[in-house]
Amino acid sequence: MELLELRKRIEAIDARILQCLAERRDIALAVAQAKANQTSGVRDTEREAALLLQLMDQGAEMGLDAGYLTRLYHIIIEDSVLMQQAWMQDSDNTGTLTIAHLGTAGSYSHLAAQGYASRRKCQLQGLSCETFQDVLKAVEDGRSVLGILPIENSTSGSINEVYDLLRHTHLHIVAETYLSVEHQILVREGQETVPVKTIYGHPQAIAQCARYLSHLDGVNVVACPSSAHAMEKVANSDEPGVAALGSQSGGALFRLIAIANNLADQPENQTRFILVQRHSAHVPQQLPARTSLIMATHNQPGALADALIILRQHDLNLIKLESRPMPGNPWEELFYIDILVHEQSPQWQAALKELKTMTRFIKVLGCYADERVKATHVIHPERAPGN
């Protein structure tokens, strides 16, 4: 009974923590509303640093480790920043948000869409699609307001199929979102001790867990259209020894149990998703912005270098350069470029005007809020080297 009572007390504390987190979110949203007419950015990193130092001092008096508090508040601050950015871009957008995504409920694309809708205080109405091309078509046809596509992963790199599709669509990139991906081996209940003979997974998940999978002797790895397909296949199978690569939350939807976790080759395994729609987005000046474009240079020595020099001359920060073969033109390439700049800024408009005169083809895919939230790091004076 004493153990039961202790557990009840923990549950009561957890309920209060949840209530406080929800209240903090509401206040953070009010802060964004108060900043709406200001020209300063959403983040105040100096205030964040002061807050972390204050929390370290308060936590020390309560016996709480500074590292633990820092990790916890990095997550809380990131959530606040992303929610404030979402409100500033979408204003009073409430209700239901229709997003086309790869796979059914439980796929990584579906989980990313859920997170995107949640930050906008919207209910997700997901539209399941079989392929990335189907996601684009659902938006082009008007069956979905938005489409979400994975475009790169911190472990396996760029998703080339998506880059190739962007060239042929008239849709605009209007947002990005990041999902921390933790792959697990999932089996049906009662199969936990049965040796695994076959593992189903999406090709990207398989690539991200290549090192782990390569050490499994006698196990057949089979690619599926999505992680949700893999989990559903295992859930509906009567065959012993079958498993799926998927997430914990996705596995719960299919009543699957994890027998191995944290399988990605890199410990910090994140996937970046882009969201597309038929109309371009307006990014408030207070938000950091990313502009994406496709460019084909003339087939002559130094052509790409000349184009990149223009970006440098206009003091533009190039953060992504991806090359893809140009269909029908052997040994020629298209370049996908991401720049940290607002599309309407004078420096970008001047650079774009120059680029148009020296390239064979250029297409701006979209300008949207940059959702990378870098953690604020502080060193407590008493913990600084030499003290």
TrEMBL record:
It catalyses: chorismate = prephenate; prephenate + H(+) = 3-phenylpyruvate + CO2 + H2O. Residues 98-278 form the Prephenate dehydratase domain. SMART domains: CM_2. Residues 292-369 form the ACT domain. Pathway: Metabolic intermediate biosynthesis; prephenate biosynthesis; prephenate from chorismate: step 1/1; Amino-acid biosynthesis; L-phenylalanine biosynthesis; phenylpyruvate from prephenate: step 1/1. One of its GO terms (cellular component) is cytoplasm. Keywords: Amino-acid biosynthesis, Aromatic amino acid biosynthesis, Cytoplasm, Isomerase, Lyase, Multifunctional enzyme, Phenylalanine biosynthesis. GO terms for biological process: chorismate metabolic process; L-phenylalanine biosynthetic process. Coiled coil: none annotated. It holds the Pfam family CM_2. It comes from the Bacteria. Its main location: cytoplasm. InterPro entries: ACT-like_dom_sf, ACT_dom, Chor_mutase/pphenate_deHydtase, Chorismate_II_sf, CM_dom_sf, CM_II_prokaryot, CM_P_1, Preph_deHydtase. Substrate binds at residues 7, 24, 35, 44, 48, 80, 84. Its EC number is 4.2.1.51, 5.4.99.5. The record marks 271 as: Essential for prephenate dehydratase activity. CDD domains: ACT_CM-PDT, PBP2_Ct-PDT_like. Residues 1-88 form the Chorismate mutase domain. One of its GO terms (molecular function) is prephenate dehydratase activity. It is found in: Cytoplasm. Catalyzes the Claisen rearrangement of chorismate to prephenate and the decarboxylation/dehydration of prephenate to phenylpyruvate. This is Bifunctional chorismate mutase/prephenate dehydratase.
